[in-house]
Structures are given as structure tokens and as C-alpha cells.
Amino acid sequence: MARVTVQDAVDKIGNRFDLVLVSAKRARQLAIMGKEPMVEWDNDKPTVVALREIEKDLVNRGNVDRLGHVVEEEQQEQEYTE
């Protein structure tokens, strides 16, 4: 398992408090909502995957909510078609 450097993720987000909020929200999307990860999963926990996505600038404060809404819209469309 590759090590995740939290300081790199803090530098991308701006401060550690926002990092906690963004990474928790993204980890929830991965674990509960079934959203596909944007990095290789490598048998890691959703929190580690979320931090990797943040480190690579794939997830940030501006797009984490939008990523979740896309999943919700897809689920609603599936419910309507069934």
C-alpha cells in the first residue's frame, strides 16, 4: 500500500479542517453511494482513495459536491426507468 502524505493533500485544499470535510464527503461517495474512484483502488479504504484523489487534484472543494450530485441523478434516473 502506498503511503498517503496528508500534508500534500492539505496543501491542495488549503487547510486541514476543509481537508477533513472534503475527504470525508468523497470517501462517503465512494463507500456508500457507489461512485467510481478516479485513481486505482489498490485494496485501500475509501478514505485513503479520497486523499489520493485530492493529492492528484482530481477532487477539491469546488467539485466534490458536483461529483456526489452526478451519482444521485444517475440513481434517480434508474428509479424512474424501473
Automatic annotation (TrEMBL):
Question: Is Oxidoreductase a UniProt keyword of this protein?
Answer: no
The UniProt entry's sequence similarity note says: Belongs to the RNA polymerase subunit omega family.
What is the recorded function of this protein according to its Swiss-Prot or TrEMBL entry? Answer: Promotes RNA polymerase assembly. Latches the N- and C-terminal regions of the beta' subunit thereby facilitating its interaction with the beta and alpha subunits.
Biological process terms in GO annotation:
DNA-templated transcription
Stated EC number for the protein is 2.7.7.6
Which HAMAP family does the record match to this protein? Answer: RNApol_bact_RpoZ (MF_00366)
Q: Which UniProt keywords apply?
A: DNA-directed RNA polymerase, Nucleotidyltransferase, Transcription, Transferase
The reaction(s) catalysed by this protein are: RNA(n) + a ribonucleoside 5'-triphosphate = RNA(n+1) + diphosphate
Keyword Ligase listed: no
> Mind telling me which NCBIfam families this protein's record contains?
rpoZ
Q: Which Gene3D superfamilies match?
A: 3.90.940.10
Mention one GO molecular function: DNA binding
**Quaternary structure and partners:** The RNAP catalytic core consists of 2 alpha, 1 beta, 1 beta' and 1 omega subunit. When a sigma factor is associated with the core the holoenzyme is formed, which can initiate transcription.
Sorted alphabetically, which InterPro entries does this protein's record hold? DNA-dir_RNA_pol_omega, Pol_omega/Rpo6/RPB6, RPB6/omega-like_sf
- List the Pfam families: RNA_pol_Rpb6 (PF01192)
Gene (name only) = rpoZ
Annotated protein name in UniProt: DNA-directed RNA polymerase subunit omega
Q: Which organism is it from?
A: Pleionea mediterranea
What cellular component terms from Gene Ontology apply here?
Answer: DNA-directed RNA polymerase complex
